[in-house]
Amino acid sequence: MARSYGKTRISRGRPQVSPVPETPIIIQDEENPIPDKYEGDINFNKVVYSLKEFRDKIDLGFSELTSNTPNVNTQQFFDLYNELFFDIPKEGENSHNTIVQTSLDYLDNYISPLQSIIDSKDVEIESLNQQLLTIQGELSTLQIAAQEEETQEAQEEADTQIALAEYQALYGTDFTNNPQMKYGKLRATLEIMDNEGVLRKSLNKNFNDLRQAKEKEDGNISTKSYNQWNAAIDKRAEGKVKDDLRDMINRVRLNIASGVGAIPGEGPQL
């Protein structure tokens, strides 16, 4: 059964090879040439040569017996090649690889039909490599940005915790509802309210009743909670002064609860 390899059709059967006619080789005796025509009696003479004379006269390499006519023509060669195709080894000496390599060496500037496909694939691979490098660069940039963002968030969280600890140390852990208030901050707030013109009574009367609330209640301590100041003012102040002092401590409590401190812009803030 025949198989096709490219344009070559290979058959396992043995093709018919025409025999090459043999040309008879005539050895002539140079000293006694044979005449073209014979007349009369023929006398046979035997000539005996020494070994040296024999070597001098006879070509021991059989060059005279060699025919210049090839034994196998091109068609016969390919017929034999197709017949022996599967018997020829793929690799090694006298193999298919030998035939291919010899033909490639003989051909100048041989270009494989697959070369254009190979070249296009090389270009495609190079393009994909460039895309991969670009994506890796973008990924690296995103990773660095994410790490920086995480670091910044961690730093901000740490700063917030530090600020909260400082704020709680100053105003107590329940600073949104019942913060700690210092006497000096309350007096300063009264001065602000007096400058704003919102006090019902004079600043001195408010100072006096606030001092009484500090000294006469809770052991004359300067820092009290909002609830303590409210109770002390209720006992030591009267009338409109009491209203002024309650407005004052409520303002301070709201400032502290909002995270700006007893007096905005002074001291730690959240």
Shape: rod-shaped
End-to-end distance: 94 Å
Low-confidence stretches: none
Mean pLDDT: 83
Q: Largest sheet, order of strands side by side?
A: 1-2
Report the sheet-strand fraction. 5-15%
Structural class: mainly alpha
Share of helix, binned: 40-55%
Number of strands: 4
SSE order: EEHHHHEHHEHH
Largest sheet: 2 strands, antiparallel
Explain the layout of strands and helices:
Elements: E1 2-5, E2 8-11, H1 51-57, H2 74-84, H3 96-106, H4 115-171, E3 180-182, H5 183-196, H6 203-216, E4 223-225, H7 226-236, H8 239-257
Antiparallel strand pairs: 1-2, 3-4
What does it look like?
This protein has 270 residues and is mainly alpha-helical. The chain has three domains: 2-19 and 44-106, no CATH class; 111-171; 180-257, no CATH class. The protein is rod-shaped. The strands form two sheets. A two-stranded antiparallel ribbon has the order 1-2. Strand 1 and strand 2 form a beta hairpin. The two termini are 94 Å apart. It has helices at 51-57, 74-84, 96-106, 115-171, 183-196, 203-216, 226-236, 239-257; strands spanning 2-5, 8-11, 180-182, 223-225.
